[in-house]
Write a structure and sequence with these properties.
By secondary structure, the chain is mainly alpha-helical. It has 4 helices and 2 strands, in the order H-H-H-E-E-H. It has a two-stranded antiparallel sheet with strand order 1-2. A hairpin with a 4-residue loop joins strand 1 and strand 2. Helix 1 packs across helix 4 and helix 2 packs across helix 3. The protein is globular, with a radius of gyration of 14 Å.
Length: 91
């Protein structure tokens, strides 16, 4: 999987799970790796996407915008992967 798509899926998991630990468990990754990918995504987006507190993560206004786009992009990526799988011969 492409690193950018991995970052998008991670951001989506962070937004849905509400914590680094929960997102790490959901994705089968370490917490430091989740934090590293989030930092890379924020650098790529050019803005802080998530407010971090000791108890919960909340999206910034920029994070809310990125989340909408992330949902669309991951949906499209899943559709493409599904089409590719259906096109592959099986047997």
């Amino acid at each position: 999987m492409n690193t950018t798509f991995r970052q998008l899926r991670l951001f989506l998991a962070l937004a849905e799970q509400g914590s680094v630990s929960a997102a790490a468990r959901a994705l089968g990754m370490s917490r430091p790796m989740v934090s590293r990918y989030l930092e890379q995504m924020e650098s790529w987006a050019g803005a802080r996407l998530i407010h971090r507190s000791t108890r919960r993560l909340t999206l910034t206004p920029a994070g809310e915008k990125v989340l909408l786009k992330t949902r669309g992009l991951t949906r499209i990526a899943d559709e493409i992967a599904g089409e590719r799988q259906r096109a592959d011969p099986s047997g």
